[in-house]
Amino acid sequence: MLTVDDAIGRLLLHAGLRVSTEEISLADALGRVLAADMHAGIDVPPADNSAMDGYAIRHVDGSDPNQPLPISQRIAAGHPGVNLQAATAARIFTGAEIPAGADTVVMQENCTEIEGSVLIRELPPRGENVRARGQDVVKGQNMLPRGQRLRAQDMGLLASQGVSRVSVRKRLRVAVLSTGDELVEPGTATGPGKIYNSNRYTLLGLLRGWGFEVVDLGIVADRVDAITQAMQQAAALADVVVSSGGVSVGEEDHVKDVVASLGSIDLWRIAVRPGKPFAFGHVEGTPFLGLPGNPVSVFVTLLIIGRPYLFACQGIESWVLNPARQKALFSRRGNRREEYLRVRSTAAGLELFPSQSSGVLMSTSWGDGLVRQCIDEDILEGEPVDFLPFSMLS
Amino acid sequence: MLTVDDAIGRLLLHAGLRVSTEEISLADALGRVLAADMHAGIDVPPADNSAMDGYAIRHVDGSDPNQPLPISQRIAAGHPGVNLQAATAARIFTGAEIPAGADTVVMQENCTEIEGSVLIRELPPRGENVRARGQDVVKGQNMLPRGQRLRAQDMGLLASQGVSRVSVRKRLRVAVLSTGDELVEPGTATGPGKIYNSNRYTLLGLLRGWGFEVVDLGIVADRVDAITQAMQQAAALADVVVSSGGVSVGEEDHVKDVVASLGSIDLWRIAVRPGKPFAFGHVEGTPFLGLPGNPVSVFVTLLIIGRPYLFACQGIESWVLNPARQKALFSRRGNRREEYLRVRSTAAGLELFPSQSSGVLMSTSWGDGLVRQCIDEDILEGEPVDFLPFSMLS
């Protein structure tokens, strides 16, 4: 059996950017992936400005607490002043540019205004309350690297540079299909031997949450002709094809044969629970990920093993996880497979869902993350363990 | 000054659901908020089924390892079988329903098939490899509570129940406006005394990331008539109005006067850094949040203080944070304000961004979360601190 790290490593050997670039409005860029490093085109702030409401002076003029300085100008944000005459003060407001000649802002609480002049009661150090040009970003600086998924603050940072359009990777198109004669669609009638298809929705949610475009092929009848047609359609329309079910060795299913006939397929057994069966291949040149069929296995396998591969195809250059260490409120013996346990974090520590069966999807909805239990690692109540909140995998 | 907890508590006193309910397709429900508890309508799985490819038998018939059992039927997933005749076996595949009369599945690896019969070489305990009806969810069980934001796995869970449409809260509409004569829009020419408006994009990103609908009013000229008109428009179109800048006591700005004239406004000073000035009021009956103007203050104030309020308005019933404890790679004295430090998590611990100035938006893009430093809490290098990854605040 492959370890989880081996499986991810093998997939990444075959991974590579599978999308082209498009230019979009910055306002629409949340979650999109930068196609190039973003270097600063200007200094931010573009000029020294005042951090306070107060009076801009030359520091040398403020040393006598009994000598009022005439107020020679008034400078509000957005309305630049003129050179400051010696031995005068400029009334100035937060965010306004410091006039040439001034070097210090005295906050208004430390001043007294009398008949058009101002008395500096308490002189701060030279340079105080001045936000220096380029304090945030210096022209030429690499602000955001290629491959970064844009967050709210990154949008703000780019806006502060005057950037209104950005080059991003097109959304990765991922085709999703499920096979299995037992599956019926939610909203339709069920019947003997049938179950509702949950995997399609779990996959839709995960893939859309990662910013991908889903090509949804629904349930495909478990016949060679139907699966062949669906796979060809998927490969033509999408950058990656994902299916759930039918990849165990020896299982009754036509997916494996069809993928092999249209390209190639490798069946893996991964030392992971939930999970184990996993297939990687190509359908007429388009990469194919074959996930196991059990609901929790689908969820965990795509989160832990599929995600790094898909992120690489999308051009996301940083997907490595840095698990938190949190206290387990349970004990559990390690075994020969790496386990991803569904847990809920509380102020006291991590609670384990009672059933860790791969068929119990309720465990993933009850929980807010996974504990990674390495091969042969015994978890002891009260000791710290590796915790991956679901939000970290989003 | 108010503490952060006091400020959140005061806001929540005024918070309440501000949106109505709509029914949408489950496929479109990612991130949407449930309007009602979701009780299970059926058992899942709906019947006992096989966890393995193998042979379904009555346990009592399998005790003699030399006595082959005739194979009386073949049951694939989706194709229910018939009552199992005594002293026979049913060939069965993963996911297929256990036929009435059978109680155990023997995995195929422990059997030998000979001329239409099967020899049970190793009999497992009674009930083995049978996934019991209702193992995942029992009919009537409360699966997901009202106020839950739907994640991928929740969509899967609802689908497994046959649910194809869900009642959710309509998206909260939040109007965003910025005032300040120094502000210009990205993509347009800048000039002396001007800076690009980043707050609009930071706010857009945060609010859309939380699933809200943004009513984007852009930059409003700093004149009473313009602000009055924009505020009236915002209050009419949105459920909540958010503005940035102009809420410091004594600051040169018309926002405070306009909001007061159209409703009411309270100016708060919160013991938080970055942050401090904050306003809460109403514009013609619509709640108004007035954020500070500095880019990092806007970001932190909305994340920490605005988020609980907005989540309550959206009907999200669980927004309490459970900070991780991680090791600080820096020391820092506590002070009289609660600080939210921009940090980056590494395998070794949390690194501090060199400049924690409220004007340095780069700190938020460089970082992947906030350290919460409580009032008078000294942070010591190597000791654990409260860490809020940005992903936890999404």
The gist of it:
Chain A is α+β, with helices and mostly antiparallel strands and 394 residues long. The first copy, chain A, has helices spanning 4-14, 152-160, 199-209, 224-237, 255-262, 295-314, 362-366, and strands at 21-25, 38-39, 49-50, 54-57, 69-75, 89-92, 104-107, 111-114, 117-120, 130-131, 142-144, 165-169, 173-179, 183-184, 195-196, 213-220, 240-244, 263-269, 272-273, 277-283, 286-291, 324-327, 338-346, 349-352, 369-373, 384-389.
User: What is the SS-derived class of chain A?
Assistant: alpha+beta
This entry's quaternary arrangement is: homodimer
Number of DSSP strands of chain A?
A: 26
Reported CATH architecture of the largest domain in chain A: 3-Layer(aba) Sandwich
CATH superfamily of the largest domain in chain A: MoaB/Mog-like domain
**Rg value of chain A:** 30 Å
Numbering strands along the chain, what is their spatial order in the largest sheet of chain A? Answer: 7-4-6-5-9-8
The tally of domains of chain A stands at 4
Please outline the helices and strands.
The structure is a homodimer of 394-residue chains.
Chain A: H1 4-14, E1 21-25, E2 38-39, E3 49-50, E4 54-57, E5 69-75, E6 89-92, E7 104-107, E8 111-114, E9 117-120, E10 130-131, E11 142-144, H2 152-160, E12 165-169, E13 173-179, E14 183-184, E15 195-196, H3 199-209, E16 213-220, H4 224-237, E17 240-244, H5 255-262, E18 263-269, E19 272-273, E20 277-283, E21 286-291, H6 295-314, E22 324-327, E23 338-346, E24 349-352, H7 362-366, E25 369-373, E26 384-389
Parallel strand pairs in A: 5-6, 13-16, 13-17, 14-15, 17-21, 19-23
Antiparallel strand pairs in A: 1-12, 2-11, 3-10, 4-6, 4-7, 5-9, 8-9, 18-20, 20-21, 22-26, 23-24, 23-25, 25-26
Helix pairs in contact in A: 1-6, 3-6, 4-5
